[in-house]
Amino acid sequence: MVEDKLSFIKEVKRRRTFAIISHPDAGKTTLTEKFLLYGGAIRSAGSVKSRRSAKYAVSDWMEIEKQRGISVTSSVLQFEYDDFCINILDTPGHQDFSEDTYRTLMAADSAVMVIDCSKGVEDQTKKLFQVCKMRGIPIFTFINKMDRMGKDPFDLMEDIENVLGIRSCPVNWPIGSGKNFKGVYNRHENQIEVFNDGNHGQSIAETITGDLSDEKFTGLLGETLHEQLKSDIELLDIAGDNFSLEEVLNGNLTPVFFGSALTNFGVEPFLKSFLDITTPPKARASNLGEINPESTNFSGFIFKIQANMNPAHRDRIAFLRICSGKFDKGMVVNHVQKGKKVKLAQPQQFVATDRVIVDSAYPGDIIGIHDPGIFNIGDTLCQDDSKLEYADIPQFAPEHFARISTTNSLKRKQFLKGITQLSEEGAIQVYKRPNIGMEELIIGVVGVLQFEVLEYRLKNEYGVEVSKQLLPYRHIRWIANEGIDTSDLSLTMDSMLVVNKNEQPVLLFQNEWSIRHILERNEGIELKEHS
Ligand code: GDP
């Protein structure tokens, strides 16, 4: 028994679960692939992508992603490196799918932020960074594409601090850039790593290491680069922020690394330091207080639901983040919100390029469980009979709305089935006009491309064609007054009254001004920004 407990704790301690975030094209997919390469999970780089070529990334499941060359849904990958068991949560880069990313970040213990060295901090990075910050997730920065001419490393650090408002501390520092990018200097270990050119990133990069003052580097790097490096490091030591693990873990300081995912330069030094600095799964907040991952009571929450990932099977998978205790295949757990027992029979994990059935899993791991339509995002599963519930996963307010109806009334049933499915996945939010039937719905989404996904999936998975009319509303407010008679409301031309699935009244507005107008015209009305 004691041995069981010890080996369980060992498993928890070697888990690292993180999300990778970036603006599209910064190199998130390439970096993920290189992690898999270093972990030995794939044999040669290039087997995962490129997305714009005929091949597609492991993380790109849907046909639409292949067609458009963007990643629509997040995926999960597990691999081993250096005795660590790593769970990567990949997130779609395109801003229109950010609600998926927001939810996925709830399942991560830390985040890697990939930045393109020629662009600096971009819009989408800013948004995702804010979500991490809100949740206090530690953020690690990988400045990518150093094999290309980019901004000066000192300017990039300043950019991170000014635009994102987080202090930064370089753990490694680039030696040269562009064609002259020769390697990195690890400040923690006072070690230079110079890379051998290798074979353009197909296999892992070989390195020559030594300390900063080692004479051999003058020959290897040339005198100018070696001197430049020494003076950069001197400046950083005097003027830079000091490294503090506590500040990193509190999300106030980001450790910064430089490299090139494409050529593999700097990938392994980053991975090693990152794994070393990040922590195993931490205790999580719940209605019963903080739950320690090392508690033997198995528990976890569902953060994502995805249907029809495999068109041949028409399956529906709920993604569960394990928070405490050991998971064993076939175990019976309590579905807390539904008050039901559920057997977890065919749990899947996503290992490199495959899906496999797992026998056991540990805190920090993500497993996919078959969902016969009983799970919702945010549901808690636990082994004992406590009424444990993990904190709710916030729903993000939609910013775009459209009127959607079936073109064929005989397909009404399939239409509603598809709409219900997509709303349960969290991809769309469904409203209707009061006193109007379900043939015509008002759909709200965070990004407009979600409408395309909706149309595509309804057609391909449910055989339903729809007509869509985009509406000019950009803001949503929930009416908080209990039992209000909405027929008494005085509305304006630029607002619309709808109800959600629980018949609660909701108002849609074209602009901020119309929200103020409604508040003035309807004394006592209370509008909430969240449901
Ligand atoms: P994502 O959209 O963030 O997942 O970015 P990708 O990984 O798809 O990369 C976008 C493009 O940048 C692709 O053409 C990659 O080959 C290229 N790329 C990625 N990393 C590097 C790098 O380190 N150097 C250079 N030169 N190109 C890179």
From TrEMBL:
It comes from the Bacteria. This is Peptide chain release factor 3. It comes from Vallitalea maricola.
